[in-house]
Amino acid sequence: MSDSAQPATPVTFPPAFVWGAATSAYQIEGAVREDGRTPSIWDTFSHTPGKTADGDHGDIAVDHYHRYPEDVALMAGLGLNAYRFSVSWSRVQPTGRGPAVQVGLDFYRRLVDELLARGIRPALTLYHWDLPQELEDAGGWPERDTAQRFAEYAQIVGEALGDRVEQWITLNEPWCSAFLGYGSGVHAPGRTDPAAALRAAHHLNLGHGLATSALRSVMPARNQVAISLNSSVVRPLSPSPADLAAVRRIDDLANGVFHGPVLHGAYPATLLEATSTVTDWSYVLDGDLRTIQQPLDALGLNYYTPTLVSAADGAPDGPRADGHGASSFSPWPGAEDVAFHQTAGERTEMGWTVDPSGLHELIMRYAREAPGLPLYITENGAAYEDKVDADGRVHDPERIAYLRAHLTAVRRAITDGADVRGYYLWSLMDNFEWAYGYAKRFGMVHVDFATLERTPKSSARWYGEVARTGALPEVPVA
Ligand code: IFM
User: Fold this and answer.
1) Which of 442, 444, 447 to mutate to test the pocket of ligand 1 (most atoms within 8 A of CB)?
2) Which residues are identified as catalytic?
3) Residue 63: left (phi > 0), alpha (psi -120 to 50), or beta?
4) 302 CA to middle of ligand 1, Å?
5) Closest by CA position to 37, among listed 97, 91, 106
6) How far is the CA of 381 from the centre of ligand 1 (A)?
7) CA separation (Å) from 349 to 92, 306, 339?
8) Between the N and C ends of the chain, which has fewer C-beta atoms within 10 Å?
9) For each of the chain's 478 residues, which pLDDT tens digit applies?
């Protein structure tokens, strides 16, 4: 781990720094058939044989829907001052259109009130991948109407909770929704159509823009609206022009396709050109780019590991090395001439290389590209094979080392001038890790998936001390 050496001076953060943990609705809530909730694309996908490890699904997940007071108490006990969660669209608006279900909204109101009562600031994500199935049946994100429906849903949630939630995030990682959902098919809805993936990306962008205006039209002006992107740090295998061209190609598809329109009001010309054999982009209508480029109050960055690419040498690609699951369909439309490589170094259970320098690089890039826009790390964390010891405790020194190294990188970016305001650890607790089911544990709180018992890992105690003191502990926290 390149940045993990103990620093000579204590690593401390600004006093107002936000220390949180993050989760998402389908990964933790369960209660999928309660109180009027209808299936989302992830219910359908996870119940389709062969789509998730061991056929795992989120029917019960970690039962947060019923256990949220215990989960909020856990966070309060640790000393966190923020919590990022997502709303299940089909719990609030079961068909994805029309009136809201009050009992669905009431769940989130109770959750938010519980957080506020304990001094934990809620950050609400409207969409973390769980499109109501009815909207997918009507065409899903490749269709323009889904963007309109998303804005209507945003308005409903904004009206209901805008008086008590100040931090709003429209979309989480739209790259995954578009390219894993409609390109490689390893995520719901499992379609494998490169043109549909690009259409989905545009309509997610449009949905973000429309939802941002809808939120602003119903919420107090003090509330902040952001988007969380899993922007990639794309590095070349060599400095050759061909490898640098491969970086451009993937950077456009991973980053430019979202931050181009969202931050700069245009898709990169190189993206449009490189994908011209896949799609003609005729669904980008006059005015769309203006709608998408809404002024934002903050930008959320989710970071796990960098991506290493080169020009393909014509040899068969072998197992996919881009870290986005096993599929013979690529999530990178029009990039058949790019090869992905494993980066060197220590890996997490996901097979993702631990490289905190990538987080620093990413922050500095967005500090330059979006000057004046406050940045939040809305996800960062690691899966390890955590076990409950005979003493009933869970010791996860690797996760502590990971967090220390990445937080040190965040601090270095602040010192270098970036306006980073907060950090949300992924994840509060072990949960349903999408196509990997329950096989990968990202939590700082261990969950026994049979009994649903929660046990804070040593990383939770460590991170709690960070949150309470605003500094990285110099001695191990037991
Ligand atoms: O679990 C996911 C989360 O839902 C989105 N970002 C990446 C995490 C780890 O894979």
Assistant:
1) 442
2) 173, 379
3) left
4) 9
5) 91
6) 9
7) 34, 16, 23
8) C
9) 444 455 567 899 999 999 999 999 999 999 999 999 999 999 999 999 999 999 999 999 999 999 999 999 999 999 999 999 999 999 999 999 999 999 999 999 999 999 999 999 999 999 999 999 999 999 999 999 999 999 999 999 999 999 999 999 999 999 999 999 999 999 999 999 999 999 999 999 999 999 999 999 999 999 999 999 999 999 999 999 999 999 999 999 999 999 999 999 999 999 999 999 999 999 999 999 999 999 999 999 999 999 999 999 765 454 456 777 778 899 999 999 999 999 999 999 999 999 999 999 999 999 999 999 999 999 999 999 999 999 999 999 999 999 999 999 999 999 999 999 999 999 999 999 999 999 999 999 999 999 999 999 999 999 999 999 999 998 666 5
Residue 370: CB atoms within 10 Å: 18
Cα-to-centroid distance, 433 and ligand 1 (Å): 7
> Which domains does the chain possess?
18-469 (3.20.20.80)
Ligand 1 environment, Cβ below 6 A: 24, 27, 173, 302, 379, 426, 433, 442
Distance (angstroms) between ligand 1 centre and the Cα of 434 equals 8
Q: Considering the entire predicted model, what is its pTM?
A: 0.96
Q: Cα(334)–Cα(330) distance, rounded to whole angstroms?
A: 9
Reduced to 3 states, what is the DSSP secondary structure of residue 27?
helix
User: How far are the Cα atoms of 292, 301, 370 from residue 226, in angstroms, in the given order?
Assistant: 12, 10, 13
